[in-house]
Each structure stands twice: as structure tokens, then as C-alpha cells.
Design brief:
With about 200 residues, this protein is α/β, with parallel strands linked by helices. Helices cover about 35% and strands about 20% of the residues. The chain has one domain: 3-Layer(aba) Sandwich (Restriction Endonuclease), CATH 3.40.91.20.
Length: about 200
């Protein structure tokens, strides 16, 4: 078996995030959760943007988590379905969340100092935000990271974005380069270290 089954995914989610599982995930069929399908495409991290030495900080504070992130995102057995199924919308972020949760990451974990907001994924004190959607949405991510970092709740933040949005089917998807430009534009105020990973099919 190449990857976690639909059953094992639901068991893991129920165990890790009791009472907080989005209903859309529980209703997903095994077809929806087929992350290892031969009809989909593998992905890898093509480039990184290391803001304020985020990589070095994570390597020092949580080396096993840093290694796991790269191992999962560069796993040739993991396939991302880029095309929308008939009658269903494309949801790349959910596919990545499903994949990480099956390896013990917490789903939709509240931000430590702002519990009304949530991280896409969290393990220990390392948050991941999957920002493959519209590029204007990244400012909320910066705010969440900064709020927790300012209170010493997280050592750094991690963002997963597209390397080239057109490879994911849209030219308005967030990219590593657009994220870099936004970070550098507000660098005097954005003091939290952020590791940006550019994903490429």
C-alpha cells in the first residue's frame, strides 16, 4: 500500500481533532481522498524563500519537523489532483491538509493568541499555512504568524505556495514571487521569520 487509506485518515482526524473536524472532510468519499492516484501528478518544492532566517531557526528548534515537511512535500508517491472532478470544485489546499493530517499534523488548530483564527496545519509549535488561493489572502497569514510570534508562541511560520500559478490552472493563484514581494514591502513591520515553500507539479 503506497499511502494512508480513507479509513486511516478519518481515524487519525477523529483522534487528533475531536469535535473540530470540518464536515466537508468527514463527508469526503475514498475517491476524494485518493492522494496516490495514478491519474494525478506528483509535486515537489522547487524553491524556498527564507525570510529572517526562518530555516535556520526551525533547524535549531524543530529539526525533525523541518525534515518531515520537506520529506512529505517531495514524496514522489504523493500525487496532487490538479483537475476538478465532475460536479466538484478543485480544492488543492484540502488535499494537502488531508495528506499532512495522515502523518500526525493537527488540522485547523486555533492560533495561540487569537483562537477565533486558525492555522491550516500545526505540529508542536510550528504552523503551516497553505496559500495556493488568491494572492491577496496572504496578508491575513502574516497577521496570524506575527500575533503568535510576538508572544513567543511560535519560532517561525511556514507557508506553502505555488512556484508557478499557471501550472496549477490559474494565473491569480498565490506564488512564491508574489509572496516575496509582499513580505519585502512590509519588512520593517513584519518581524516574524517565515519560510515560504514554492510547490511545483
Amino acid at each position: 500500500m503506497n499511502g494512508p487509506s480513507c479509513f486511516s485518515f478519518r481515524y487519525t482526524v477523529g483522534w487528533l481533532v475531536t469535535g473540530r473536524v470540518p464536515s466537508r472532510l468527514l463527508r469526503s468519499s475514498c475517491e476524494d481522498l485518493d492522494l496516490y492516484s495514478s491519474s494525478s501528478t506528483p509535486v515537489r518544492v522547487l524553491e524556498e524563500y527564507d525570510y529572517r532566517n526562518a530555516r535556520g531557526i526551525l533547524h535549531s528548534r524543530a529539526p525533525e519537523i523541518l525534515d518531515e515537511m520537506h520529506r512529505l512535500l517531495n514524496n514522489e508517491q504523493f500525487h496532487l489532483r490538479l483537475g476538478a472532478a465532475v460536479g466538484k470544485s478543485q480544492n488543492l489546499s484540502r488535499q494537502l491538509q488531508t495528506y499532512f493530517v495522515s502523518y500526525g499534523w493537527e488540522l485547523e488548530r486555533p492560533v495561540f493568541v487569537l483562537p477565533d483564527l486558525r492555522y491550516d496545519l500545526l505540529k508542536s509549535d510550528v504552523p503551516i499555512e497553505i496559500e495556493i488561493g488568491h494572492e491577496r489572502l496572504v496578508y491575513a497569514v502574516f497577521f496570524k504568524f506575527l500575533a503568535d510570534y510576538s508572544q513567543r508562541k511560535i519560532p517561525a511560520g511556514v507557508m506553502v505556495v505555488t512556484q508557478n500559478p499557471k501550472d496549477f490552472g490559474h494565473n491569480w493563484h498565490n506564488s512564491l514571487e508574489s509572496t516575496r514581494r509582499k513580505i519585502e514591502a512590509i519588512s520593517s513591520a513584519l518581524l516574524v521569520p517565515i519560510l515560504v515553500l514554492g510547490l511545483q507539479p
